[in-house]
Amino acid sequence: MWKILDDKRGLSLIELVVTLSILIILSSLILPSAQMASKRSKEIELRRNLREIRGAIDEYKKTYDRGVDEKKITASLNKPEGYPETLEVLVKGDDIKGYLGYKKKFLRRIPADPFYKPQGDEPAWGMRSHNDEPDSTTWGGEDVFDVYSLSDGTAIDGTKYKDW
Q1: Low-confidence ranges of the chain (pLDDT < 50)
Q2: How far is 88 from 76, CA to CA, in rounded Å?
Q3: What is the DSSP string of 75-90?
Q4: CB neighbours of 124 closer than 8 A, spacing ≥ 6?
Q5: Any idea where the domains of the chain sit in the sequence?
Q6: Which long-range contacts (CB under 8 A, 24 or more apart) does 131-137 make?
Q7: Model-level pTM?
């Protein structure tokens, strides 16, 4: 009746339609979960990179404070100090006002934000200085107290990446 080929040599049209339908249903189930897994891995990378940079900033500040405690660095009374001037200082190294006697590097490289692609080759992060408001989106330029993502995207849990 509706057979394209003889029963001994091929498939009927109904068998082909059923097979294609099953494949379409399976692929429609797999594709969203693959996209979610990709987004989740990028979020893990973003958290790790933020933790790495913030840890380096904290280590820089601890080293500075140790120098002040040992009275090898004179702290300014009118301006709080102890944070790096830029993120590049963490990579290039700093002797922290001569306290260390050598340039200590706090990062091997500045990690990239997986959700924000800058126009240049260098990774781009939003920065706040110690005088900036906690939710400020502009950098005061004095030092680097904190970093945040420049992405406007929303995470799986509903929070904004720039608020992490």
Answers
A1: none
A2: 23
A3: PPSSS---S-SSHHHH
A4: 113, 116, 118, 150
A5: 42-163
A6: 137/162
A7: 0.80
